Amino acid sequence: MAALAVLGAVIGEGMRRRLRLLTYRRGEAELSRPDPGSRRWVTAGTGLAFAALGWTFLPGQWPLLLVTAPVAAGAAWMSAVDLDVHRLPDAVTLPLLAWSSIGVAVGSVLLPNVSFLSALAGAAALGGFLWLLNLASAGSLGFGDVKAGALVGLLTGALSLGSVWVLGMLAFLAALVAAFIPRRRKQIPLGPFLFGAWLGVTLALGWP
Prior knowledge:
The chain is mainly alpha-helical. The chain has nine helices and no strands.
């Protein structure tokens, strides 16, 4: 687990330094935003996520570690971007969605507790629900959140379809609590809470 923690921290530090360049910002509105700071939590969070996923899935469910570790790294990147500019970049979300789909399909062959059909249902359920909220809110909830919901719904549904709703409720409750913290920004990004809830539910489902 120590090796995974170090690997995750190294990857996280690389992402943090890349984030400091602010190359993900687009347009005058994003370029003029205040500096988001050092975001050292990206380094620590990625290292802890790698270690926790390794503890959960090794040795018997190693294919799930291969699938989820890149998602954990991508989730840290996307959360940092979403907290800064309220956008989840397709350049990260869509490759992770493709990677996860392939990984879950292979995992369903290798592991008896992984279901590809359940994964597809989880992606459709959470992604579809967020899509309806996107329409109802006239875009206040962004389409990036819809794709992120499909991603975490796919991964969670692969292990437990019922837990997809637990994930959704945890994410929305956490975002609601954050919205009431004094001196917080008026607009609360949902992405970090979706990814945080996914990691928590995944660790609970896969715990030895």
